[in-house]
Each structure stands twice: as structure tokens, then as C-alpha cells.
Design a protein that fits this description.
Blueprint (H helix, E strand, L loop, with lengths): L2 H4 L3 H46 L12 H93 L6 H71 L5 H15 L3 H4 L1 H7 L35 H29 L20 H40 L10 H12 L3 H8 L4 H11 L25 H11 L33 H7 L5 E9 L2 E9 L3 E5 L1 E2 L5 E2 L8 H11 L13 E2 L12 E9 L4 E7 L5 E6 L6 H14 L10 E5 L6 E5 L6 H7 L6 H20 L2 E2 L8 E3 L5 E3 L6 E2 L3 E2 L14 H6 L1 E2 L1 H16 L11 H9 L12 H10 L10 H18 L1
Parallel strand pairs: 1-6
Antiparallel strand pairs: 1-2, 2-3, 4-5, 7-8, 8-9, 9-11, 10-11, 12-15, 13-14, 16-17
Helix pairs in contact: 2-3, 3-4, 3-5, 8-9, 10-11, 13-15, 18-20, 18-23, 20-22
The protein binds adenosine-5'-diphosphate.
Length: about 850
């Protein structure tokens, strides 16, 4: 419905005028507001420029050179300045808009006036005619009355006049006729004015008023259109989401996004890099003891009757401190795994309800792992002292404490107390350095131990055997009666002969680690003899099970004979035989009696049985050789351990053998034996002809089929499934640590880091961790389970399908670690079956519990291979 039909009434007309007045007032208000906004924006622009200038007053000195954060900030401030300029520009445009509104308001005022005048004009004509009709009507009435009166007079005169003539009658008639004419004329005027009024009124209503209203509507609507356009312009200049601002914002976002913590200090580190500081050297000052003959040795704990109690107390204290550290670590780990807050009460926010929750979570993990490392260091430091004291106490043996005042007397005292003959006593009066004594003796007798001396120097053995002494011969028979300890040794005859080297004795176990020795001695009276290296000197130790485990160092007299508390003997074999036959305690205090010699186990091979042929690899501890066993003619692989490595490392080296000897599976490399009789100690294993899987993959990258790659994955899964069932965590599963035989069959190898535990928490440093193969929970919290091996298995799969590529290539370890923590996973290698890649991703689930176990992995791979085989 338009104005023309709806707004014809007078009231509507007045309302329309009022409406236009209101619109004019609204325009005024808007104008004032827009003016104010323009002013505000201008002021804001000025303030923003000041902000940018303030922000740019930063240190441009060298210290921040290359810093991404400083560069981004500067660019951000520049962008703010740009933003300020844009604001100013827009404010100026708003002022133009204001002017437009002023003009519009003036035009509108004029249009309202024109409407009012036009309406009045057309209404005036109708009003005038209306008045005319009224006036004509009253004239009509007036003439009608005059006419009626004259007519009455005429009729009266006419009736009364007999002749119907006369002057008077004529006069009356004349007047009557005039009145009659007047009436008729008035009548006609009246009729005409009514007719005109009808016409004018009709036109007013049907043509003129609607026309005016229609025109007015169109005028008002076009004002609204202009008005709207002006408003649109005004809004547009205040639109903060406009492209210009968006572009600025986008640039700011990109700048801030380009801040990269791992690159931030690149240039800085490059500029200030220095070679690592030389370690501080703490060295025992030898001059301190040069005047104290024999008692105190540099860098060595002195264990004697004066110090033993103090050492034991100290040991207790330190062990307590180690336990303390361990408990704290456990608490921390529990906390990380969802337990209670850490012991020191520092509640670490999980950050989940903060806007930068992920970051704060990461920070707190970082802090925990730092604290954990600090505790591990503390534990390691204390443990080192514990080990040192324990080692000192153990090596001396609880029962054979030298006197702190005069050690020459101690041995003598023992002899006297035990009633041994004077001749022997005299021989022992001038005891020389025990270690050297053994060495001299062994060398003199064609002793066979290759003894480690300082800085890798070693002595060669002579091969001339010594004739047996009369005592030896007389007791040989009894020694022969000894029964071997285990069934496997049942056929071995334990015999004594001084004309064969000590290392050939079945009960001599060479440098077998102490843990192994303890494992072998189970019943009271079980004993064996072994070699240990202390302070770079070889010592022969008798280990006995007697109310626990006791270790006695064989003492050497100045004449080069061997003894405990009893008489000295010319050979170690004779000394041991004497202890065995006499059934006398090795030391009075210990009461330990030798009952059963424990012979070497099946896998304790003789070093001389191994002939090294050619070097086939290089391991962490030494070279790996292809070799032949003389006894069986079997081709084997032999890992050797460098002689110069410290004891601790040698123990670690043998750890692999200790673990491997229990396993028997086609996909686990087989242990044949260990050689610990003398240096270099060796691990003998089945020879796997294809060598390392990694080298194999790289060399054969062109010839490998998907089927073969899947087969390799299945083999590895089978081996790992077996290990998982044995609670063995490998901890270093990777292509470089797998071997491949000629049928592409894969065998898991390199058990140097393995642990036989369901869960293993690393408490020493994480120096040699293969970061790119290790699961996040192990890296962050040192927590290892078989599910960590599953993660590494995923990387192994990736290596197999990428044919020996390096994982996360182009990334440093720390970058890879950081990206993994934020959810990054390697893309699928080319031509990997989709299901295999899916399996890799499952192995790399952040939550260890969501990863599949090895039996599931094996089943999946096996089923996929079956499907592949059937499809061909
Ligand atoms: P380590 O455990 O000391 O690091 P590895 O087990 O990695 O030593 O062995 C080093 C290299 O020696 C391997 O990469 C492989 O080439 C070779 N190797 C090791 N064991 C065998 C074996 N049983 N058969 C064949 N080659 C082997």
C-alpha cells in the first residue's frame, strides 16, 4: 500500500509532515555522532602511532642480532604504525561522509517544504469552491424568500384587481417578474457551482492528491536510498574487518608465527660458540703419600681394621641417600603418570584449562624431566661412592682385613694363630706387593693370564709348564674325586696339575663378572676361582658360598708363593687343593670351607678355541669378527671387547651375553658362548651371513619386493613377540641392530641395552639414547616397557619400507623430539601398503597403552602377508 491511497486524510498529511521533521532531527543526530567518531578515530590513530614509536624504542644493539623474536616485534610495531595510518585515513573519509549527510539534510528540508506548499495549493481550490457552494446556496435562499414574497403580493393584487390591469398591478407584476428572474439566475449559479465543486472535489481526491502523495513517496524513498548509501560509507570506514586491516593482521600473524624457539638462538650460538670447556681435573696428589710406604695408595680407598667401620657407616649413609633419590624419582614418575603431586609440594598445573595449556603442559613436563635428571645425577654420584666403597670392602673380603698399623705383621699373626710352620712364616715376613707377586708367579710358571696393566700394556704368557711338586702329586688323587657341580659337567674330570696353566682348570672362570659368579655359587661350600682387575692389576680371587658369598684375594709372598691365612704354596692350584683337602676354613673368621668346585658353564668357552678370521663389523665395545671354533669347526661371529675399556664397560659388554644365553628363537641371534678366561673378552654368536639389516636395505634397495619387506617386518615382530613373552625390553630396536641372513630372514641382535624387567626406569644419564627410535615416555621420564619397543618397531618398519632411509631426515634429535611431542608423525614411505603404514601409526600412539602388543602386530602382518600370497 502506497502513500497515494493510504495517506489521503488530513491527519495522515499532518503525520507525514511530523515524520519528515523527525527524520531531519535523526539526520542531525547522526551527523553529530559521525563527526565525533571521526574525531575519536583520529585521536586513536595518533595514540597508536605513539604506541608503535614506543615499541620501536628497543635495543637494536648486537646482543639481539639474529633474534627472530626481536625482528618480529619490530615488524609488528611497523604494522601497528600502518594500522594507525589507515585509521587516520578512514577518519578523514568519515568527515567527508558527514558533509554528504549535511547536504542531504538540507535537500530533505526543501523537499518537505515543497510538499507542504503543493498540498496547500491543491487543497485551497477545493476549499474555495466549497465556500462558493455555501455562499451560492445562501444567496439562493435569500432570493427564494424575496421571490416568494413578491409572488404572494402579485397574486393578491391580481385577484383583487377586477380588470386584471392597472398601474399598481403592473408594478407588482414587474417586481414579481424581476424577483423571478433573479431566483432563476441564482438557481443556475448554484447548480453550476455545485457541479464545479463536484468536479474539483473528484479531481482533488482522485488525481491531484494521489499524484502529490505518490510523488512525495518517491521523493522520500530516494532520500532514504541516499541516506543508506551515506550510512554504508560511514560504516565501511569504521570496519575493522576490512581487507586492509585483515592484511595487516595477517602479516602480524605470520610474523609472530615465524618465531621459532629452536632457531631463535641459532645466530647467537654461532657467534658466541666456543669449544667445550676443558673438564676440571681432580687428581690425587701423589706427593702426599710418597713417604708412607705401601699403606696408602693414590685414588684408592684404604680398607684396614682402622677404617672398616667408618667405611661401613659411610656406606650405609650413602646407600640411604641413594634410596632417598630413588624414592623421590619414583614419586615424581607416579605424579607424571597421574599419581599424587610431587613430594616437595610444588603442584604442577596440568594447564588443561589455560589458553596456552599445551605449552604449559610441555613446560611442566620439561621441568619434571629436568628435576628428574637432577635426581638421577645425584643418585649416580652417590651410587658411584657406594660402588667404590663396596668394591673396596668386597675385594679385600670381610675376613682378611689388613692391619692399618703394620700390615707385615698381620699375615704373620694369622700364621701363628693357625699354627703353621716357622719356615713358611719366615718366607712371608717380607711380603711384597700382592698384585705384582701374582703376575711374577704367573709369568714364571707360564701363567696364562694376560694381565691388564696401566694404559693397555699387557704381559704375554710363557708356555713352558712347571713340573708338579711332590705335594701336588700326593694330593692329586683326592682332587680327582671331586664331582662336577652340574649335569652338563658330569663328564669333566676335575684334576689338578701344576703343569697346566690355571686358565685350563675347569673351576677357573677368568674375568667372569661378579654377578655371574654369585649366580653360580648356590650351596654352602660351592667355590670357584676367578680373576679380577683392581687398580689396573690382576688379582686372583677365591669365591665361596658360605653364609652368603665371600671373596678372598689370593695373597702373594715375597718369594712368589700363594696363600690365604695358611701356609704358602708354589701354585694357586696347590693352594686351592690344600684348602679343599684339609677342609680347613679359608680364614678363621669366615669359617668358609671348600666343598664343591663349580666348573665353567657350557657357554664359558676357552679363548684359545676361537680363531679370528676377518673383521666384519665394528661395535660399541670393539670389533666384530668372523671366526671359527677350533673344537667344532663351526663358523661364528665374535664380538670382542677392547682391552683398554674400564671394568664397568666390560661388565656392560658381557651383559648382552648374559641376556642372550637364555633365548632360543629363530628370529633372535643365538649365543654360542662367552670367552672370559683372558683378554680380550669375547662374545661368540651364530654367524648371520647378510650382516646388518640397515646396510642390507641400503645395498639392496632396488631388488627388494614388498613381500620381502613385509616378511622382514613379520620376522622382527616374531622375535620381539618372543622377547616380550620373556619380559625382555630390548631398548635399542632399529634396523642397524638387526641382522639378516641369506633368506632375508631377520634376527634381532645387539642386546647391549636390554633389560629383563616388565618396566625399567632409567636412573643413570640418558646420554646414548637413540632419540629418533625411542618412545616419548622413555625420553621424557626414562620409563621403558615393551610398548616402548613397539614404538621403535614402528620406526624399524619405516626403515624397512624406506629401504634404509634415516628417520626424520633433516631434523636434529631435539627437533624431531619436539615435533613428535606436538603430534607430528613421519609420512608413509613410498609404496608402503596402506595397512602397514596404519600399523606404524598405531605403534607411534602417544599413549603407550593404545599401542598394539607384539603378538597383535605379528598377527596383523602375518594376515596381510597371507592375503598378499593368496592374491598372487
Ligand atoms: P655393538 O652391539 O657392540 O654395537 P653390533 O651388534 O651393532 O655391535 O655389531 C656391529 C656390526 O657387526 C653389525 O652391524 C654387523 O654388521 C656385525 N655383526 C654383529 N653381529 C653379527 C652376527 N652375529 N653375524 C654377522 N654379523 C654380525
Amino acid at each position: 500500500m502506497g502513500f497515494s491511497s493510504a495517506l489521503q486524510s488530513r491527519a495522515a498529511h499532518e503525520a507525514l509532515i511530523v515524520r519528515q521533521d523527525a527524520e531531519l532531527r535523526l539526520m542531525e543526530t547522526m551527523k553529530r555522532s559521525i563527526q565525533m567518531k571521526a574525531k575519536c578515530d583520529k585521536e586513536y590513530a595518533i595514540s597508536l602511532t605513539a604506541v608503535a614509536q614506543q615499541g620501536l624504542k628497543i635495543d637494536r644493539a648486537d646482543e639481539m642480532q639474529g633474534s627472530l623474536i626481536s625482528k618480529s616485534w619490530r615488524s609488528y610495531m611497523d604494522e601497528l604504525d600502518q594500522q594507525a595510518k589507515q585509521f587516520k585515513l578512514n577518519a578523514e573519509q568519515l568527515e567527508v561522509v558527514c558533509d554528504k549527510l549535511t547536504h542531504l539534510s538540507q535537500d530533505k528540508r526543501k523537499a518537505r517544504k515543497a510538499y507542504q506548499e503543493e498540498h496547500a495549493k491543491i487543497a485551497a481550490r477545493l476549499n474555495h469552491l466549497t465556500d462558493e457552494v455555501v455562499r451560492k446556496k445562501s444567496e439562493y435562499q435569500k432570493h427564494l424568500e424575496g421571490y416568494k414574497a413578491l409572488r404572494t403580493r402579485f397574486e393578491e393584487n391580481y385577484i383583487k384587481a377586477p380588470s386584471r390591469s392597472g398601474r399598481k398591478l403592473d408594478d407588482v407584476r414587474d417586481k414579481y417578474q424581476k424577483a423571478c428572474r433573479k431566483l432563476h439566475l441564482t438557481h443556475n449559479e448554484y447548480v453550476l457551482s455545485i457541479t464545479e465543486a463536484i468536479e474539483v472535489e473528484k479531481d482533488f481526491r482522485n488525481v491531484l492528491l494521489p499524484g502529490l502523495l505518490e510523488h512525495q513517496q518517491s521523493v522520500q524513498e530516494s532520500f532514504i536510498l541516499l541516506w543508506r548509501n551515506i550510512l554504508q560509507e560511514a560504516v565501511q570506514y569504521g570496519d575493522l574487518t576490512a581487507d586492509k586491516y585483515k592484511e595487516i593482521q595477517k602479516r602480524i600473524d605470520t610474523l609472530i608465527g615465524s618465531i621459532n624457539p629452536t632457531e631463535e638462538y641459532g645466530e647467537f650460538t654461532e657467534k658466541y660458540k666456543t669449544s667445550p670447556t676443558t673438564p676440571l681435573l681432580f687428581q690425587f696428589d701423589e706427593t702426599l703419600i710418597q713417604d708412607i710406604p705401601g699403606k696408602l695408595q693414590s685414588s684408592t680407598l684404604t680398607v684396614d681394621n682402622l677404617t672398616v667401620d667408618w667405611l661401613r657407616n659411610r656406606l650405609q649413609e650413602l646407600e640411604g641417600a641413594v634410596r632417598d633419590c630413588q624414592e623421590k624419582q619414583l614419586k615424581m614418575i607416579e605424579h607424571v603418570n597421574g599419581g599424587s603431586p610431587v613430594a616437595n609440594g610444588s603442584i604442577i598445573s596440568n594447564g588443561s584449562n589455560t589458553s596456552n595449556g599445551i605449552q604449559s603442559n610441555k613446560d611442566s613436563l620439561c621441568r619434571q624431566s629436568k628435576d628428574l635428571n637432577a635426581l638421577r645425577c645425584q643418585e649416580k654420584q652417590k651410587q658411584k661412592l657406594v660402588d667404590m666403597i663396596k668394591c673396596a670392602l668386597n675385594e679385600v673380603g670381610c675376613e682378611e682385613l689388613p692391619s692399618g698399623c703394620d700390615d707385615d705383621l698381620t699375615l704373620e699373626q694369622n700364621f701363628i694363630e693357625n699354627g703353621y710352620n716357622n719356615e713358611q712364616q719366615q718366607r712371608s715376613n717380607s711380603t711384597s706387593s700382592p698384585g705384582l707377586g701374582i703376575m711374577n708367579e704367573l709369568m714364571r710358571r707360564g701363567g696364562v693370564l694376560t694381565l691388564l696393566r696401566g694404559r693397555g700394556r699387557h704381559f704375554k704368557r710363557k708356555s713352558t709348564p712347571q713340573p708338579a711338586t711332590p705335594m701336588t702329586r700326593s694330593r692329586q688323587g683326592r682332587f680327582n674325586k671331586l664331582q662336577p657341580r652340574s649335569q652338563s659337567l658330569g663328564s669333566l674330570s676335575i684334576s689338578l696339575s701344576t703343569n697346566r696353566p690355571l686358565y685350563e682348570e675347569e673351576w677357573f672362570h677368568g674375568v667372569l663378572p661378579r654377578e655371574e659368579v654369585v649366580r653360580l655359587l648356590n650351596n654352602d661350600g660351592d667355590f670357584l676361582v676367578r680373576e679380577t682387575i683392581r687398580n689396573e692389576e690382576s688379582q686372583i680371587v677365591l669365591s665361596v658360598c658360605w653364609n652368603g658369598h665371600k671373596h678372598f684375594i689370593v695373597q702373594t709372598t715375597s718369594e712368589g708363593n700363594f696363600r690365604f691365612e695358611g701356609p704358602p704354596f708354589a701354585s694357586i692350584q696347590e693352594l686351592i687343593m690344600h684348602q679343599y683337602h684339609s677342609e680347613l676354613p679359608v680364614t678363621v673368621k669366615s669359617g668358609s670351607i671348600l666343598r664343591r668346585p663349580v666348573c665353567r658353564e657350557r657357554w664359558e668357552l676357552s679363548n684359545d678355541d676361537v680363531v679370528l678370521l676377518e673383521r666384519i663389523g665394528r661395535g660399541n665395545f670393539g670389533d666384530v669378527y668372523k671366526a671359527k671354533l677350533k673344537s667344532t669347526k663351526l663358523d661364528v661371529a665374535v664380538k670382542t671387547c677392547r682391552m683398554t675399556l674400564p671394568d664397568e664397560q666390560k661388565r656392560k659388554f658381557l651383559q648382552e651375553g648374559r641376556i642372550l644365553k637364555q633365548y632360543d628363537h629363530p628370529n633372535i641371534v643365538k649365543l654360542i658362548g662367552i670367552c672370559v678366561q683372558k683378554q680380550p673378552i669375547m662374545i661368540v654368536m651364530e654367524l648371520v651371513l647378510g650382516g646388518s639389516l640397515l646396510t642390507y636395505l641400503r645395498k639392496n634397495s632396488n631388488g627388494l619386493t614388498t613381500r620381502q619387506q613385509m616378511g622382514m617386518c613379520r620376522d622382527a615382530a616374531a622375535g620381539m613377540r618372543y622377547l616380550e613373552s620373556k619380559n625382555c625390553i630390548h631398548r635399542d630396536l632399529a634396523a642397524r641392530n638387526c641382522l639378516v641372513d641369506l633368506e632375508h630372514s631377520v634376527k634381532i641382535s645387539d642386546f647391549g641395552m636390554s633389560r629383563e624387567e616388565e618396566e625399567y626406569i632409567v636412573s643413570d644419564g640418558m646420554k646414548q639414547i637413540p632419540v629418533k627410535w625411542t618412545a616419548p615416555e622413555a625420553l621424557n621420564f626414562g620409563k621403558y616397557t615393551s610398548l616402548c619397543d613397539v614404538w621403535s618397531y614402528g620406526i624399524l618398519m619405516w626403515e624397512i619400507f624406506s629401504k634404509g632411509d634415516t628417520p626424520y631426515s633433516g631434523m636434529t634429535n631435539s627437533r624431531a623430539r619436539e615435533r613428535i611431542d606436538t603430534g607430528y608423525r613421519m609420512p608413509t614411505p613410498k609404496s608402503t601398503p596402506e595397512e602397514m603404514y596404519r600399523l606404524m601409526l598405531q605403534c607411534w600412539a602417544a599413549d603407550a597403552e593404545s599401542r598394539p602388543h607384539f603378538d597383535e602386530i605379528y598377527n596383523v602382518v602375518d594376515a596381510l602377508i597371507l592375503r598378499l600370497d593368496n592374491s598372487h
